Amino acid sequence: MTHGRANILLLFAGAIWGLGFVAQSSAMGSVGPFMFVALRFLLATLTIAPFAIREARNTPAKLKRSDYYGFFFIGVLLFSGAALQQVGILTTSVTNSGFLTGLYVVMVPFLAVLLFWQWPHPVVWPCALTALAGIYLLSGGHLDGLATGDWLTVACAAFWALQIIFINRIAIRSGRPIMLALVQFIVCGVLGLIIALGTERTELFSIVAAAPEILFAGIFSSGIAFTLQAVGQRFTTAPQAAIMLSSEALFAALFGTILLGERMSLQGVAGCALIFFAMIAVELIPALRSRAALKP
Predict the structure, then answer these.
(1) Distance CA 91, CA 243 (A)
(2) How far apart (Å, rounded) are the C-alpha atoms in residues 279 and 102?
(3) How far apart are CA 212 and CA 177, in angstroms?
(4) Distance in angstroms (rounded) separating the CA atoms of residues 233 and 89
(5) DSSP tag of 29
(6) 125-163 pLDDT, tens per residue?
(7) What does the alpha-carbon distance between residue 256 and residue 261 come to, in Å, rounded to a whole number?
(8) DSSP code of 28?
(9) Are 112 and 118 in contact (CB under 8 A)?
């Protein structure tokens, strides 16, 4: 798969997340955050399992125990981010949550340098800041007073950033991105269910009431989108992947305008333009420099 096609997959993942953000928030009126996390990822497990089995049959090389340990670790990172975001939504606004979650765009290159001394292409730094500025404008250009949920969402962004970084390192090494996605879904579903059964009271009618949101989040936002992320990240760098995935905010705004009839302000249009510019720049500038370097 080419670098460009990988980034298209990441854009699709961002589009699905953008469409599903409202569903993720509205489900909190019926079920607790940990039960929602458990159900969405258990459903994602069922969605992706057939594809993981097919991948295993078509791949002659078997996975090592260390690969499964890595998959499990990524699952813990994913669960931590998903749980913190879901709990944070209870005490913060959708606007704040959308912007603060987007902090992972800037966290990824910084953490990659701090943890592995892995310096990204120079264009990543201004593009990451540009994408973050775009997310800020899309969120309304302001933050309400920071509450506990806001700080939980900042912590969530840090775990998202770590998940992106470690997927890049482990998915490339193992060559089995769909199995990676399956294992992380199982880890999230089991951990969420254990905590939910111990801390939350969930009735069957509550689950039925939130069924549309759970189905969308489980099949599309989790099963399909996170698998596209794992596949796409095999062929691009973590900082570039983070910028592509930040299109989530752009698509959320576009779908709100198209499907819900929401009117986008001039500030929101500027935010979309900044995110789009960052995505184009992080894709084209390194490619153009490589072509120029190859010319005699």
Answers:
(1) 27
(2) 14
(3) 28
(4) 28
(5) G
(6) 888 888 888 878 876 666 655 667 778 888 998 999 999
(7) 7
(8) G
(9) yes
